Amino acid sequence: MKINELIRSYEMENFNLRYWQKISIEKVLNNFIEGKNVITFINLPTGYGKTLIGLSPLLYQIKNNSWIYASWLCYVLPTRALCNSLASKMIDVYLKNLVNEEDVKIFHGGIEDAEELFSSMLAITTFDTFLLSYARRTYGGHHLEKPAGFIATSYLVFDEAQMISDKYFYSYSLLKAVIERLLSIGVPIIFMTATLPSKIKEFIFEKVEVDSLPEFGNFNEKPESYRGKIVNAVFTHESFDNLLEKEKSWKKLLIIANTVERAARIYDKLNDNILKFLVHSRLVKKEREKREKLINKFLDSKKFNKCDKCGGEIQESYYYENINNEYKILCENCARRAEGKIYEKIAVVTTQVIEAGLDVSSDLLITDLAPADALVQRCGRCARFLNEKGKVYILDTDSPQPYPDILIKKTREEIMHRFLKGILENSLTDYSFVQDFVNESYKEFEPLNYTQELELEDIIIYLRDRLLSFTVDWKMIEKVKVRPESQITVVAPSVYHIAYVKGESETEKIQRYRLVNEDWLIRAIKDILDEVPKLKETCLVILADDVRDNSFSVSIGQLNTLSFLLYNDSIFILYPIVIEGKKVYMIKSIESQKFKQFEEGIYIMNPHYYSDDKGLVSLK
User: Fold this and answer.
1) Looking at the structure, do residues 275 and 205 belong to the same domain, yes or no?
2) Residue that finishes a domain, picked among 186, 213, 240
3) What is the DSSP string of 240-275?
4) Which residues of the chain have pLDDT under 70?
5) 473 located within any domain
6) Where would you tag: which of 87, 106, 383, 533 has the fewest CB atoms within 10 A of its CB?
7) H-helix or E-strand containing 390?
8) Are 411 and 372 in contact (CB under 8 A)?
9) For 346-467, where are the alpha helices, taking DSSP H only?
């Protein structure tokens, strides 16, 4: 099969390829075929269809039954939500009837899953898991050679990598080192983005050759040819309450706040007659994924346009039914006969977690002021699909947090300038304006000095120069972290499978454990925390799957207090062990006065601080 035949096969499968999709697919495949040692950089708008471009080398090899360019595909995304959303789309649409479901593996939530994750035709993972696997981070004393080998024999797609940003360029520095090293050994790399500022692009690709498409200024397609139309974008100092009082005609409202605390306050203000969801980073994994799945369903009129009861196509009006927190989309006829509570409007309140990649659309977007690239991504979730219309409000903020002050200040200036000139809508959606808007907003921004610069330099040297050495530098491996500030995993209230274990060893250091009884019991977290300090000869363990499903991550730099982790004046920490082939966590309690400082690890939070509806809102 030739390249043009692959493109024709897409069109026969009802993929209506746009001009720059075709050109980009040709560019990517030609670079692979010719063995060019370059970064193939695809710079196309939100909602344009970049995913198919990144998949094309894999599809080309599958259809040719020839694996001469790369043995696998490693698809790297910035967030878990994107991994889950994109995996479903790939399996159901692009790879349908071409691969088995087990050939596609998705991020599972921890480095301990890396051996399984990186053993498939297509691995979809977050940047965090990718980097730790590449660096051969250890788990349970085992040296992770397999993931590193998988990466070295794959082709890589970095999609929307601008979202790994931080004020120090710490994560960008690590990405830069990895790209330089992998390119030097011939690993094909595709980098796809809608909003990467030129300043950051120049930093990441300083020492490598980049083949960009389209060239800056060459993209001239009107946004209405590939997305809906934002008819009005307003920059305002009005309060959220006033805006909602004015705006009544919306059916799908998306609100993006800059902090979890602000998102929760806005969520509380929404009327209970609206079907409302709150999504942020401090919800436990299983609940967050459940809400993300519902949001993908309810805010994607392009895909989910059939009634869940009668199966008929919904032409105009959507209705939402809730029976005991089980939700359905209904047509007008089924809504009249529905048993549960019926809603005619849906509102999603969220933070940056929804910014890129999620295939959702609203007719009204209200967003806090954020950096220009983030605003463009957020506006990509309003009137996203053809023939839709939407309206955007950008609310000025008193605090720049969590963004650098200079970046918010410069973005505010650019927005006001473009608002007064009447080109704000174009600057947010029309790619011939977007790139200039983003680049101007970043013109005065410089990364801050990282306080542990020497440690960062050591990590960069390891990633770039010593990674493929046969000599294992255990100390250096353990120093590798993905973000400038380490994170802890927080376990929230739920019911858990528990067991009691006893140490068995002839030495003072306990290395092996056995179950005291074979029955696994179910206990609420409060009962577990009450019991642990009283145990003497036995320890209490909980299943790893329970921990993974009921936890989330928090940056150590955000922790100014122990309050939400303190229970009966103790801190509870989990340690991984293996019992009879099962991975479990053993719980240890430490009195607060003996607790010295936070380190990377897993902690159980005080149950009183977590809300099933809103998660952990405040860290104070």
Assistant:
1) no
2) 213
3) HHHHHHH----SEEEEE-SSHHHHHHHHHHS-TTSE
4) 108-119, 137-147, 216-217, 301-304, 356-357, 466-472, 505-511
5) no
6) 533
7) strand 389-395
8) yes
9) 372-379, 405-421, 424-429, 431-441, 453-461
